[in-house]
Amino acid sequence: MDSMVAEKYFVWPFTKLPDGSYTMPDDFLYAIWRQLVIDGNAHRVFYDGAVKTAEDFARYMKLPVNYPVFVMDAERQKVVFAAWLNGVSENAAYAHFFGLGRGSYQPEMSNMITEYWDKMNFFSVILGVLPEQNRKAIHVATDCGFQILGTVPGLCLKAGGEVEPGTILYRPMMRKKGEI
Predict the structure, then answer these.
(1) Which of 22, 51, 129, 132 could disulfide-pair with 56, CB 3.0 to 4.6 Å?
(2) Could you say which DSSP state residue 158 is in?
């Protein structure tokens, strides 16, 4: 990774600490949600309608089945990219992600996340499902090494019960057989 990128951005895992607090206060999570709404992307990221408010977003990130990680702009002390894994199995997980701030996305941001996941050495593959019409998200996923497997009609359930085709993506990880 470019050292200039590493100086400008850093990865901040979001997790519950032994004392019950989290590595990021709720105010940060609320600010992330507000920016996602300002960017006009909340309905694209949470297309199923399950997350509708800042409080919903904070609760969702804290669910024990989610493993969030954020890319911070070191200078501005602001989250610029968010991702999380869930649907974890023995050797795979599902990835979800979004950038914050219109026009601020750089491939290095998503690559920092996938490199972080690689270093965890937990998974052989990371999977993703994106609505076929969300070309921008599919582009971001392919920027960080995801490959398109194909499109399945009716795979994505939208808020209101509509279905639309979903693109399935995967990214092989660095995990070697027998390593954990």
Answers:
(1) 51
(2) P
